[in-house]
Amino acid sequence: MKTIDTIIFDLGGVLIDWNPEYVYLDVFQGNREKMQWFFDNICTQDWNENQDAGYPMQKATEERVALFPEYEDLIRMFYGRWTEMLGDAIEGTVSILKQFVDSPNYKVVALTNWSHETFPIALEKFEFLHWFEGIIVSGEEKTRKPFREIYELTLNRFHITAENAVFIDDNLRNVKAAEVLGINGIHFESPQQLQNQLQTLDINV
After folding, report:
1. Which of 74, 105, 111, 129 has the fewest beta carbons closer than 10 A?
2. CA 191, CA 125: separation in Å to the nearest integer?
């Protein structure tokens, strides 16, 4: 039976609560339908993920304003008020992380889709980000999940054997991409669910 010796954590949505709703729900006066339309059509997930892959935020903002000038103020808020979208640590997962970090049996690294421009803010805010043996930040590498190259980069940089690793991410798309390379995947939904999934894989700390 394979031995799991490496745990790879995603950050946003797993260890850190980040949500643009913290800004926009108030701006849209609680109207979730209008807010969702804005996210689906103007400041979309694909657009934001392009910045996670290293595209300059200022340039991306100006290009989007040029496309949708009637939404200029709302577009500029996305990165202009980014720190207000950064919530607290997800404490239950941080507790699980701490157990792995304290154990001599596991290598613990992180793989995150995050702009290199804003990641230093998170590094300053969250002490536990300094516990990892290393962190792959998509914006620094100019690629992102779910592209194969960023998983291969993670495996190679930290000398990880795919079948001996577990990757934890709240985005099922990213988990499935890791599994294609032979990495064991856990689709994160909550700290308790994560704990249960780890036990199912006979991973105990």
Report:
1. 105
2. 21
CA-wise closest residue to 117 among 195, 75, 55: 55
Other Cβ atoms within 10 Å of 32 Cβ, number: 11
Place of tokens 């969250």: 126
The string of pLDDT tens digits covering residues 113-163 is 999 999 999 999 999 999 999 999 999 999 999 999 999 999 999 999 999
CB 17 within 8 A of CB 92: no
Domain that holds residue 55: 19-86
Name residues whose C-beta falls within 8 Å of residue 44's C-beta, 6 or more positions apart in sequence: none
Could you say which of 68, 86, 104 is where a domain stops? 86
Q: Look up the CATH number of the domain holding residue 139.
A: 3.40.50.1000
Report cis status (omega within 30 of 0) of the bond before 56.
no
Inter-CA distances, 169 with 23, 72, 177, Å? 24, 32, 11
What's the DSSP call for residue 12? B
Alpha-helical (H) ranges within 158-205 are 172-180, 191-200
pTM metric for this prediction: 0.95
